[in-house]
Design a protein that fits this description.
With 266 residues, the chain is an alpha+beta fold. It has 8 helices and 10 strands. 27% of the residues lie in helices and 21% in strands. α1 packs parallel to α8 and α4 packs across α8. InterPro entries: FPG_cat, FPG_N, H2TH_FPG, Ribosomal_uS13-like_H2TH, Znf_DNA_glyclase/AP_lyase, Znf_FPG/IleRS.
């Protein structure tokens, strides 16, 4: 499943294609949404924004569409009147004079009055978004110390969207490595310096990934710039740690694969 940085980059591409341009055609496959097709034609999309792994498309007429890609959903951008070759099922299509944005395979789609969309059950249960630039490491540290989260094991906590929205599997491995914290810990087991290091890494790593990581390659190598985000431990089981040469370990923690360095992360 795509994580916060991937959803944010996808939303950027969708927004660049259609924001501020009148919709010339609208298609919904779900029967419950088809009543909105005529209403939305002629309107402009005002914004396309992610919250965690959900996407919100706001229309000028006062409606907002919620969608979640889940495991198989994917958005595509195409020229107006064109459709990519795919065996996927087209669920939503918004088309302007020049571009079309197309949602395939997703099933979690609903329309809300913009003023009420925050009441969506998934959105209402989310924590702060790790890519929200207004979120500070001090606020993250406060959440780590909160009774609701302090007793949770870090492998499960760092996947819990109620803690921080947008986190995911590769991010949790890289965050714990950056903070030099072993995954078997709980927040309540950590000292002040560790809490500070973890709270900073929980913001820095996802934001680095969003800024510089365009696609996954071998071992996370993506761009050619010196400061490009790349995997230091994720998907590197058995390879030497770049810091200490210890072999990277892979373990199944919270039902997902997690990678870590036993020497660096004590």
């Amino acid at each position: 499943m795509p994580e916060g940085p991937e959803i944010r980059r996808a939303s950027d591409a969708l927004a660049a294609a259609v924001i501020g341009r009148p919709l010339r055609s609208v298609h919904f496959a779900p029967p419950a949404l088809q009543k909105y097709e005529d209403e939305l034609v002629g309107q402009c999309i005002e914004s396309i924004t992610p919250h965690g792994k959900a996407l919100l498309i706001r229309f000028e007429g006062g409606l907002t569409m919620y969608s979640h890609n889940q495991l198989y959903g994917i958005w595509k951008v195409a020229a107006a009147g064109k459709r990519p070759k795919t065996t996927r099922s087209l669920r939503v299509a918004f088309e302007t004079d020049d571009k079309a944005i197309l949602l395939y395979s997703a099933t979690d789609i609903s329309m809300w009055p913009t003023k009420d969309v925050h009441k969506h059950p998934f959105l209402a249960g989310l924590g702060p978004d790790v890519l929200d630039e207004s979120l500070t490491s001090a606020e993250v540290a406060e959440r780590l110390r909160a009774p609701r989260f302090a007793g949770r094991g870090l492998p499960a906590l760092l996947l819990q969207q109620a803690f921080l929205a947008g986190m995911g599997n590769y991010l949790r491995s890289e965050v714990l490595f950056r903070a030099k914290i072993a995954p078997q810990q709980r927040p309540r087991d950590l000292g002040k310096r560790q809490i500070t290091a973890l709270s900073k890494a929980l913001l820095v790593v996802p934001r680095e990934s969003y800024r510089s990581r365009n696609k996954r390659g071998a071992h996370g190598a993506v761009t050619r710039t010196a400061d490009a985000f790349r995997f230091r431990v994720f998907d590197r089981a058995g390879l030497p740690c770049e810091v200490c040469d210890t072999a990277i370990k892979r373990e199944e923690l919270a039902s997902r694969r997690l990678y870590w360095c036993p020497q660096c992360q004590v």
